[in-house]
């Protein structure tokens, strides 16, 4: 299924961003230095190669400040672009300049996440491993960050605390989980259960509970290889996820160990913005 972004996901953020930029006085520079009857034409182009994402949001920013603006996307979200390639054209009044920075902030951030995700996905290509995001997203931006991940070729992990259960050390502190798991399955049937493990003993205990996913966290390659084999041999149809310390230098080797999923917090919490700019004709 193609990634989907609803106006409800970005309109509140867009309104807040424009309010932040305009303050009480509005765009003073444009008001005093650009004629009110000016007609502007320009394009947004990539200044470095990457994956574009957020075109709909950028267009909405221009429309918010210049309702009669004609905005045309030249590519789709998720497209790879080269340096110098135009991704959008804009025509309209001087409100285009008022919206410029806000539109680019959204577009650059989302494109940066999509670009970094694509680099991880490309590195794992040819293995069974899918690249997953985490909840390490910009506060308030989760829908946008996760949409960008999907546009970059990644897969969304749980959206929040409400649509899956992930049991970590801080939740059980060494106690037996059997009773809690049984209660969960009675009261929340169908909710995916993920159990995080960082030792062989925890993996053995987790297998017996038949979770949907066992997450092997911060394990070295030798231990990962052994525990992945243990879970596969158990034959419980449990998905295997690995996390912790994942980067572009080690992901290929980790993917070759055979996990189903690799979750990478960096694709949302540390993605550099993709450099795009608006140039007027």
Which secondary structure elements does this structure contain, and how are they paired or packed?
Blueprint: H1 7-22, H2 28-33, E1 40-46, E2 50-51, H3 55-65, E3 70-73, E4 80-81, E5 86-92, H4 95-123, E6 130-132, H5 142-151, E7 165-167, H6 169-172, H7 178-187, E8 193-197, H8 200-208, E9 213-217, H9 221-234, E10 239-243, H10 251-255, E11 261-263, H11 266-269, E12 276-280
Parallel strand pairs: 6-11, 7-8, 8-9, 9-10, 10-11
Antiparallel strand pairs: 1-5, 1-12, 2-4, 3-5
Helix pairs in contact: 3-4, 4-5, 8-9
Helix content: 40-55%
How many beta-strand elements? 12
Largest beta sheet: strand ordering? 6-11-10-9-8-7
Q: Could you report the average pLDDT, rounded to the nearest whole number?
A: 96
Q: What structural class do you assign from the helix and strand content? A: alpha/beta
Shape: elongated
Provide the CATH topology of the largest domain.
TIM Barrel
CATH C-level class of the largest domain: Alpha Beta
Alpha-carbon distance between the two ends: 38 Å
Unreliable sequence segments: none
- Pattern of helices and strands: HHEEHEEEHEHEHHEHEHEHEHE
Tally of domains = 2
- Rg from alpha-carbon coordinates: 23 Å
Q: How large is the count of helical segments?
A: 11
The major pleated sheet works out as: 6 strands, parallel
Strand content: 15-25%
CATH superfamily of the largest domain: Aldolase class I
Q: Which architecture name of the largest domain does CATH use?
A: Alpha-Beta Barrel
